[in-house]
Amino acid sequence: MKIRYTATCLFGLEHLLGEEIDALGYDREETMDGRVTFLGDEETVALANIFLRYAERVYITLGSFPAATFDEVFEGVRALPLETWIGRNDAFPVKGHSIRSGLTSLPALQSVIKKAAVERLSACYGLTHFPEEGIKYQLEFFLFKDRLTLMIDTSGVPLHKRGYRPEANAAPLRETLAAAMAAYSRPREEVLLWDPMCGSGTIAIEAAMLANRIAPGAKRHFAAERFPQFSPDVWRAAREEAEEGRLSTGIEIYASDIDPACVELTRANIARAGVGQWVKAFRADARGIEAPGRRGTIVTNPPYGERLMTPEVVETLYRELGVHFRALAPWQVYILTSHPDFGRLYGRRADKVRKLYNGMIPCYLYQFFKNER
Fold it and tell me: Are the C-beta atoms of residues 6 and 28 closer than 8 Å to each other?
């Protein structure tokens, strides 16, 4: 059975997510800001949730239709085959977003979609009241330019929550974005990868997982594991495939921080992630690190001056980092920040700049890879 899926991601990661979907062997239908739609089958629900490194959630797409009025919303939802998924005792709460559309009230949209779903399911099951005590099928709508797409969330807890980071520091970097930063830096055995402002160790851990093909969702569970439409065998097979695909490379990764509490937190997260053979955590000031006689790449997410440090302290930090990191040449450097004057403060023009988002915060990944001092 062909099933249409939608995988969502942070803005700026669409091409990485699309490449992952291609690598799994699925046909992409549409790519837009923050989401990729593709066709799959029953096995896809498990493979996508377990293997997609840059996705936030994976949805089953029920349908899409014009929705400039509430009447069109109601009729469009009522026409969808909700009973294929939702049983007579199941729960089907509604949430969603409206972007660049005439209908902007989310509570009103939720109410109309819920009423339409109830009417459709009432006709199928002969019920006037639904207990909603069974399996939870989270309905999510996406209204964009007066076209509504209705989906079912198969992930449950967002996919960036891998399970190794129950605690984070005051300004956590989302795991999916850290994975993207690692991917852009091309982690490899012959090059030391170093995050000298590691916080809770997310970049280092994600780099180790990427380099050793550790599936990001291998150690967690998903909402769709309770859906009777999917055999437990598909989840078992996907986890076995993830285990068989793991590598054990000789890559070496450093995670250091000036704050000893961050170092201890990073060590705990490294242990939970099971990447201790590749990642070494220790205390150090980023402005004084020394190249250990080999090629290296710095990948880091320094404070922005919003939640950690004052703007004045951050600006001084960026100037000092620029001076010190240039002294490490020919090392490559990848720095993510939202600070608008980073390039001027750092004192060197980036070889490439990518616009990314840390949650809802617009950021830029400054990439320095040419051998210049």
Answer: no
Residue that the structure tokens 């949650």 belong to: 359
**Angle, helix 202-211 to helix 175-185, in steps of 10 degrees:** 60
Per-residue pLDDT reduced to its tens digit, 21-45: 999 999 999 999 999 999 999 999 9
Which pair of structure tokens corresponds to residue 143?
């209204």
Q: How far is CA 238 from CA 42, 70, 179, in A?
A: 11, 41, 21
Separation of alpha carbons 306 and 350, rounded Å: 23
Cα–Cα distance for residue pair 12/242, rounded to 1 Å: 26
Element counts in the chain: helices (H) and strands (E): 10, 14
pTM assigned to the model:
0.94
- CA pair distance 55, 41, nearest whole angstrom: 18
Query: What is the H or E stretch that residue 16 is in?
Result: helix 14-23
The DSSP-derived string for 184-223 is HH---TTSEEEESS-TTTHHHHHHHHHHTT--TTTT---G
Q: Tell me the three state secondary structure of residue 69.
A: coil
Other Cβ atoms less than 10 A from the Cβ of 295: the count is: 12
- Where does the pLDDT of residue 222 fall: very low under 50, low under 70, confident under 90, or very high at 90 and above? very high
Q: What pLDDT digit, counting tens, does each position of 326-363 carry? A: 999 999 999 999 998 999 999 999 999 999 999 888 99
What are the pLDDT digits (tens) for 85-131?
A: 999 999 999 999 999 999 999 999 999 999 999 999 999 999 988 99
Pinpoint the alpha helices (H) of 188-310. Answer: 202-211, 232-244, 260-273
Residue 216 buriedness (CB in 10 A; 0-12 / 13-18 / 19+): buried
How long, in residues, is the chain?
Answer: 373
The letter for the amino acid at 346 is: Y
Distance CA 326, CA 306 (A): 26
Edge-to-edge strand list for the sheet holding 279-283: 279-283, 253-257, 192-195, 296-300, 332-337, 361-368, 352-358
Angle at 274 between CA 270 and CA 278, to 5 degrees: 70
Q: How many CB atoms lie within 10 A of CB 76?
A: 20
